[in-house]
Amino acid sequence: MFFFDAHCDTAMRLVGETPVDLGERLPDGHVDIPRMEKGGVGAQVFACWVDPDLAAGRWMPRTLEAAAAVRAQARRHGDRLEIARSGTDIARIRAGGRIAAVIGVEGGHVLGNDPAAGLVSLYEAGVRCVTLTWTSSNAIANSGDGERLHGGLSTAGREAVREMARLGIVADLSHASDETTLDAIEAAGPVLVSHSGMRSLCDIPRNLGDRVLREVAGAGGIACVNFFPAFLDKSCHTAVFEVWDRYRAERRELAARYGGDPGRADGELLPRYLEQLARIPLPGLPAVADHIEHAASVAGTGHVGIGSDFDGIMLVPPGLEDVSRMQALAAELGRRGWSGEEVAAVAGENLLRLFSEVCG
Q1: Which CATH fold would you assign to the domain 3-233+283-359?
Q2: Residue spans in the chain of domains classed CATH 3.20.20.140
Q3: Phi and psi at residue 348, in whole multiples of 5°?
Q4: What pLDDT does 255 receive?
């Protein structure tokens, strides 16, 4: 079964003090080429994320550095991995038995004060998917978890989304507020929600409500289900974010002492907080299938996909420990009575259609 994963954060493992090489089976993390091959992942969006807590002037350079690192991996492992800049590229690379790497960006804050110019720079760097917000609102859009700075999209945000459509960059509304998502649909048409749960099953702002899900589908877009256990089950969410909120507060204080470098704070704090997270009971693979089934019941199987969030989540559902386990998800849907065509659509064909429509 061909899988097209709409979101992983593995690009950020390719930069920094100890960058990894995707060509070999890594001893940790969730994604590398051998495990993608084993899991049948023929296309993968590699999201380049830069922490908004970093100084604003460093956002775009860090983003372009991560994008360059993804391109470097494709050059190094060109017999197995190739950068895809369009849906046509994805189909061709897939037909050749290799993995299509789509470069994405997570967080419109990186566009700074001139979103149009920033988008051109990203497009030239090979970026074909931009998540408009992260956990905080920014100059172009409101986040579902952030301050209400605008009604949804700002005026600059509407212009940015139109520019993305003109260039051929997929607008991704994971993390966005409901109003931002609806504004983006009005401004640009088909959109992606790359890695979110379903609010009807786990009632949190970060997840996607049924009304907005219907609008995404009605505009020809795709909603993709996240694997993060805290987005799958409300009790798990409460337990995880009680720990996570304390971590974020301590991280900001420590980063300030380290000259505004949150990465250095992570190295000091993470081991202690990971121990606490490891004690929380987690929903497993069937919970992911539950969210997929709910999304399909509301939007139709032609408008649902998967967006694992691998290498961006510290907890994974038992049964989906890394990207090599993707076929187990296909098998679970089959056991529930899904046809092969329905599973194939959700696994990857729907996303391929969207990227072909927007990117060519």
Answers
A1: TIM Barrel (3.20.20)
A2: 3-233+283-359
A3: -170, -25
A4: 74
